[in-house]
Amino acid sequence: MSVPSIKTISTREVYRNPWTSVREDVIERSNGKRGIYGVIDKDPACIIIPLETTPEGEFVYLIEQYRYTVQGRYLEFPQGGWETAEIVPEELARGELAEETGLTAETMVQLGTHWIAYGVMHQKHHVFLAEGLRHGETDPDPEEHDLVLHRVPVREFEDMVLDSRIMDNCTVAAWGLYKVWRERQG
């Protein structure tokens, strides 16, 4: 890590709800110029790649849900957080997977950790591969009442990434991380 080139002069919280807080920082850049920086703070989250290998091929499970900020329904890997800073990443991933999809996994591999939109947001995203999937009942949060689960062949999923039917950058980044990890597994 390098020495910070921006120093925080002061900070104040301007908004808070159970999922998010927003703060406004007065900053000073290394050239002495002051400015304002807005930061969204969120607790850690996870994203899960539910991968199923069958004699017919490989499939991923995607969640379709309405995303209010962009006013549309979109497909993405299951993901989310528990609105607490102290989490065990694998427990969170297993919980989110079961909650949103009803799936449980025999194996969970943590592929890495990313920052989400770190130009404006302070939130870590733990990336997991889930395999050996078993089906069960979902238990969605109240705001997730309209989730739809899709089982998609990997080739079709990758086509959806390439033609922008999958627009969630976290889903695309997780898949890219998985592809590099898998390639190096030999």
Provide keyphrases for this structure.
alpha+beta; 3 helices; 20% helix; four-stranded mixed sheet; 186 residues; Nucleoside Triphosphate Pyrophosphohydrolase; seven-stranded mixed sheet; 2 domains
List the helices and strands and how they pair.
Blueprint: E1 6-16, E2 21-29, E3 34-41, E4 45-54, E5 57-67, E6 72-76, E7 79-81, H1 89-101, E8 103-115, E9 121-122, E10 124-135, E11 148-153, H2 154-162, H3 169-184
Parallel strand pairs: 3-9, 4-10
Antiparallel strand pairs: 1-2, 2-3, 4-5, 4-7, 5-6, 5-11, 8-10
Short overview:
The protein is of the alpha+beta class and 186 residues long. Helix content is 20%, strand content 48%.
Describe the structure.
This protein has three helices and eleven strands. The protein has two domains: 36 residues, no CATH class; 140 residues, Nucleoside Triphosphate Pyrophosphohydrolase (Alpha-Beta Complex), CATH 3.90.79. With 186 residues, the chain is of the alpha+beta class. It starts with 5 loop residues before the first strand and ends with a helix. Strands 4, 5, 6, 7, 8, 10 and 11 form a seven-stranded mixed β-sheet that branches. The model has no long low-confidence stretch (mean pLDDT 94). Keywords: Hydrolase. GO terms for molecular function: hydrolase activity.
Low-confidence stretches: none
Sketch the topology as an H/E string, one letter per element: EEEEEEEHEEEEHH
Rg is 19 Å
Fraction of helical residues: 10-25%
Any idea how many domains?
2
Determine the strand fraction and express it as a percent band.
over 45%
SS summary, helix count: 3
- Structural category is alpha+beta
Mean pLDDT: 94
Based on the coordinates given, report the CATH architecture of the largest domain.
Alpha-Beta Complex
> How many strands, which pairing sense, and closed or not: the largest β-sheet?
7 strands, mixed
Distance between the termini: 31 Å
CATH superfamily of the largest domain: Nucleoside Triphosphate Pyrophosphohydrolase
CATH class of the largest domain: Alpha Beta
Oligomer: single chain
Number of strands: 11
Bulk shape: globular
GO molecular function: hydrolase activity
Family: Belongs to the Nudix hydrolase family. NudK subfamily.
Pfam families: NUDIX
GO cellular component, one term: cytosol
